[in-house]
Structure formats: C-alpha cells, structure tokens
Amino acid sequence: MTSMHIVGLVLTVLLIAILSIRSGRSVKNASDFSGSGKNAGSAIIAGAIMGTLVGGSSTVGTAQLAYSYGMSAWWFTLGGGIACLILALGFAKPLRRSGCSTIIGLVEREYGKTSGLLATTLSAIGTFINIISQMLSATAVLAVVFPKMGIVAALAVSAAVMALYVIFGGVKAAGLVGIVKLALLYVSMIGAGIIVLVLCGGVTPLADQVKALQASQGAKAVDYFSVFARGIGVDLGAGLSLVFGVLTTQTYAQAVMSGKSDSASVKGALASAFLIPPIGIGGILVGLYMRTHFPGIAAKQALTQFVLMYMPPILGGVVLGTLFIAVVGTGAGLALGISTLIGEDILGKVTHKFDQPQKKLVFSRVCIVLVLAIACVFSTGKLGDTILNFAFMSMGLRGTVVFAPLVCAIWLPGLVDSRFVIASIVAGPICVLVFGILKVLPFDPLFLGIALTIVICFAGYIYKRKQPECVNRT
To answer: Is the N end or the C end of the chain the one with fewer CB atoms within 10 Å?
Structure first.
C-alpha cells in the first residue's frame, strides 16, 4: 500500500458518505425512508437492488473461487441476474398490487398473525447472520489496506460506514448510492479484466495458460472452463440459492415495492438482471490469471493482490474502496430490510406509539444502528468465526421460511390451510439447519428444505379443497 492507494480509497468512501447524507435531505417521513411512498424511478430501484445484491461474493468471492475452480465462479453473479429476471417478470407486479409494505405482511394477511410473527423472526435471524458475514468480509478488506488496524476498530469502521450508507436516505440512499457503486464496480471489475487480457495478449493466450495449468495437474485436474467444475449439484445449487434468497429477502421486495409504477419496478429489476452477470467476468479473469502466474497465494487474496500489483496506485485505491463499499452496501441494505420487518411486522402489531410518520422514521434509523451495533458484538472473537461457518445457511433459512408461503399467498389465495403453512415455516429452516450441520447430503440442504415446505403447503391445499366451504364454492 502506498499513500496514493489510501488517497483513492478514502476519496471513494467519502463520495459514498456524501451521497448518502445528501440523499437524506429529501426524506421527510418513514414512507420516504422505507419506500412505501412508492415514488422511486427504475434507476433508483435498480440501484437499490444491485447496491445490496452485488457485494463481496460478486467481487472478492468470484476471484477467489475462480482461482480454484475457474468459470464455476460465475454463479455468484449469474445466479443474481437470473433471480432479478424472475423478480421482474414474476413477482414485481403481484408484490406491488398486494398493497402490503413487506413480503411477510402479505403472508400474514393470508395466513394469520402466528405465521407472520414466525416468518418475521426466522427471516430476520437469517438476514442478521448474513449481515455478520458481510461485516467480517469488510474487515478483511480493511486488513489489506490497514494491516495494523485491530479487529474491534475495523468492525466499528465497517458498521459506521454501513450506517451512513442508508441511515439518512433509506431506500433512496441505497438506490442512489447503488447506482454510483455499480458504476465504480464496472470500472473496477471490467477494468481489471481488461488489464488481464492486455497482460496476457488476449483471450487465447490466457486460455492456453489455463490449459497448461490443467495439464500439469494430471488426473486431478480442475476443468476451469466448466461452469459446473465443482459438480452440477454444488454449482447449480449455488445459483438456485441466490434465486430463492433474492425472492424471499425483504430488501429486494422493498425495492420493487417502492416503484412509482409497475413499469418502473419491472424495468428496475430487469436492468439489474442484465447488469449484474458481466461483473463476474472480470473477477473470473483475475482469478484465472493469478492462479496461472501466482499459484502459491491464498485464493481469497487473488483480487486484492492483483489490484496492488498491476493497477496504477490512485486507481487501485479507488478499486479497493469500491470493494469495501460493495461489501458494506450489502450489509447496509440487509440492515434496512430488518428495520422494515421489525417496524412493520412486529412493532406495528404490538403498539401504535410509532404510527406517526416522524416517530416511525426515528425508530427505523435507531433500529438500523442497533442492528449493526449488535452485529459488531457478534462478530468479535471466536463467536464471529463460528457464525461465519453458518453464514452459508442464512440464504437457506430465508428461502425455506418465506418462499412457499409467499407463492401460495400470491397465486393460491384462500386455497391453502393456514395450519399447514405455519408448519412449513417451522419445518423448513429446521431441515436446513439439521442437514447443514450434519453435512450428509451431496447437495445444498436448501433444496430439501424448499421441497419439504412445498410438500407441506401442497398438503394444505389438498386438505383445504376437501373442506365443505371449498367444495360448495367450486
């Protein structure tokens, strides 16, 4: 690290902080903050989605996985793009027209308060685990930039920047900053990919180098050119996990619900679907280049080491700052989602003291700070390492809790018995946790959990159809 690296990084973080604070000037009440006022354009919606979805996994994680498995790493961003496409074409309009401010609120309206409380609690826990993993990832980036910074100081800085990211402007800040973040990511990741091609002399020479690497590995060679290098079950599972996670996370639903029209929401999600996957290509090129030229480094350092070695210092600092913001933005967006869930689906049902728009706005902001402060505590020491080991299951927890009940509430209203839905909300995450800990399945336990919830809800559909009132209606 040189002084110019630090200058570039600091300027990037300051730019994001200034944008967040300025966007907060137009936020007058809770509906502006959460997006329930439904006045966001397609660009803001796309920014809010990508600002949260494109994080450490899409950048540092993609280069890390490409270092070990090549094209298989594309599932980080390819899965995100597919998820946004489904969100745009299948879920955006039904979610907006439901009239609910949260996806849990839609489930609760259809299946009762018990289902809502259980879904809110379990979904918030799954999201909270992911915030911790993002916070730990942010400290890893800071460790590269400031090696002498302690873990407590790094966590405090990470949490502070996460709070700045959304606490002033809410959905609008997440959207506006997300647009800038995306532009910086394109410059960083696509730029890094171009530098790789220049260094190698084009795609063909790089491919030849990778083939030579494969040949040197003998019988245990990795197929770096296959998107299923880790096995179809594992890699396809990674993509589908992203799909289920996006469709069942409040942050992304909140973005499309905030649109000023159905068209704006659909266009915003579609833009995300097409803009996210190319970011992964740059990370793959970097990972492959570093593997062929520096086979002895730690895989997780592939991108940061490339930036320090091959990019001009000021640009390298901007890229490092962008990587930090990429991780921070994901954590901040998830914290905003938890704040909305707690405010709308728990607090709003218990007391009316915060019904006044200004009070609700203050609560939302305080809630975000508290969530991030608690995440800091849980991220320290051995506790943080333990939680990080379970972070991969956070997507599964959210998916199994919400996916089947949400689909039934949208497309089978009044046709599924609520008791079966409540059973699915409880059984799904238990299944994911048990098999995730045992690690006896050759595929992601998310799929077994999703299958179980679908079977239970289908049983509720069959049971409901046999009831006298349903028979008479048909």
So the answer is: C
